[in-house]
Each structure stands twice: as structure tokens, then as C-alpha cells.
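Side project, low priority. Logging it here so it doesn't get lost.
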Amino acid sequence: MTNEKSKDTLTWSGKDWFLLSVNAILFIVMFVVFNDRLPNEVGSHYNIRGEQDGSMSKTSFWLMNGAICVALPGLLSFMRYIDPRRNNYSRFEGYYDLMRWSISLFLQATFLIVILVNLGYDIPVLHLVLGGLGLLWMVIGNRMGQLRSNYFVGIKTPWALSDETNWKLTHRLSGRLWFVAGLIMLVCAWFVSVEWFLPVLLICVLSSSLIPVAYSYILYTRKSKA
């Protein structure tokens, strides 16, 4: 009873504070180094050709940076403490840490690239961001099979949530699909023309997301018939 109670009363850990602190420090460093050098209107959106097609005020840009690069990783840390199946997180703690850090570094790198482009540096923003997205897909997918049932992370179909075997098999397949999709995206970001990359990106993202859902349902129907 004591062990069960301690598991149900999880508290904000030192690793959570460390992740939040690192992201906050990176935000502060970028603000101190680049704020005075940035124009009042900052380019914030780029089309599939890597051309700027949207902008916002410098103040809004920093607020968005803080919300995405600091608040979002903090939210990822907080989610497990309100998950009804929070006891399962200890079974994939290493993967959860890897996922949070990977997402945080990708977001920080993306904002740094946008800042440098606004300062006039000649950077292949499209190749770097989309290639980074492919790398992120690979990292998250590589160990996705370690995920255990929860309500916030993974392929959360009703069939997988109600059946541990369904969950495990679905995420084993998902991990392979995400890794292959990420590898394709990473390669195509550098060796495929921009006209073709958007269809490739959509196919990779949709297939790695929807095929596991269909597979989870197939597993469910097979078990129901049996």
C-alpha cells in the first residue's frame, strides 16, 4: 500500500527542473545576444521554397519563442503527473526523457535558425528545419516500442488503450515506421527538389501516423473474432 501511494503522489522532479532551466537559460541567452540586433518586424514564416512569407513584431516573436521553447517542454514534463496511468511512466522513463530533450533541442535550434536568417545570414533554412524534423522523427521512433500505456504519449487508439498486447504491437510497428519515415525526410531535405519535398513530407507524416491506427484496429478485430 505504501508503494502504491507513493507512485500516485508523484512530484516535480529534479530532471524536470533541469529541463525547464536549460530551456529558460537558452531563451535568455538568445534574447540578450540578439534582441537589439533584430529588426522591429521579424520574419516568422517561410513557404516550401524557404522564402519568407510572413512576419510579426519583435515582441510577439519573443513571446512566441518563450511559449514554444520554454512553456511547451514544461508542459511535456507536467503531463505525466496528471495522467491516470502515470504509474506506467517509470517503465519508459528513459524514452520519455529522450523525447522531451529531443523536442526541446529541435525547437531551440529552429528559433536560432530563424533569428540568424533575420540577421542576414545565408542559411538553408528549409533544408535545416525539415532535415531536423526528419532526424527528430527518427530519434522518437527508434525507441517507441518502449512506450507503455498512457493517455498523452504515443498512438492512443481506444483499442490500444484497452489492451496491453495491442499497445505493445502497435508501438513496435509505429517505431519502425517513424524511423523509416524520418530517414526518408532527412535524406529528401537535402537531395530532393523543393517541389517534391512537400508531398514526401505529407506522405511520411501521414503514413507513420495513420498506418499504426489501422493496424491497432486490425489487431482488435482479430482478437474479437478469435
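Brief comment: Confidence is low (pLDDT under 50) at residues 1-8.
Revisit when time allows.
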